């Protein structure tokens, strides 16, 4: 199951959007099966919104032993009431190096942007692909 999920993540990471979708200012009615990306200090964070209100965050973690970053994933659930999204994470969401300071955060989606405010900082995620409706 984990291998299938990793393959799905890889496919989503390399899927390009059509030029008609890029730069859209239309806020989506649904965020199911979308991927959102945030870059910070040469590290990339991904949020994947799936079906049935399931979601996953992939975030970089520094491995002291190898001296390199590797990605770890945290599962959770979400609710979307256009344009508001609430994310509730499970597992190791309070680990050092994780992008948010809380296991529950809220944000607003506007067009291809997702802004999440957490502990006085606004994190901006971008998505230029929307599911087919």
Automatic annotation (TrEMBL):
<protein>
    <recommendedName>
        <fullName>Lipoprotein</fullName>
    </recommendedName>
</protein>
<keyword id="KW-0732">Signal</keyword>
<feature type="signal peptide">
    <location>
        <begin position="1"/>
        <end position="18"/>
    </location>
</feature>
């Amino acid at each position: 199951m984990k291998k299938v999920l990793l393959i799905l993540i890889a496919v989503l990471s390399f899927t390009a959007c059509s030029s008609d979708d890029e730069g859209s200012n239309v806020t989506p009615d649904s965020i199911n099966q979308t991927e959102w990306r945030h870059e910070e200090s040469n590290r990339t964070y991904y949020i994947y919104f799936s079906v049935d209100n399931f979601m996953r965050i992939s975030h970089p973690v520094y491995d002291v032993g190898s001296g390199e970053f590797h990605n770890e994933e945290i599962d959770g659930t979400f609710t979307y009431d256009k344009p508001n999204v609430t994310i509730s994470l499970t597992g190791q969401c309070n680990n050092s190096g994780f992008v948010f300071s809380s296991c529950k955060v809220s944000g607003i989606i506007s067009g291809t942007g997702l802004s999440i405010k957490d502990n006085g900082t606004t994190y901006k995620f971008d998505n230029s692909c929307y599911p087919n409706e």
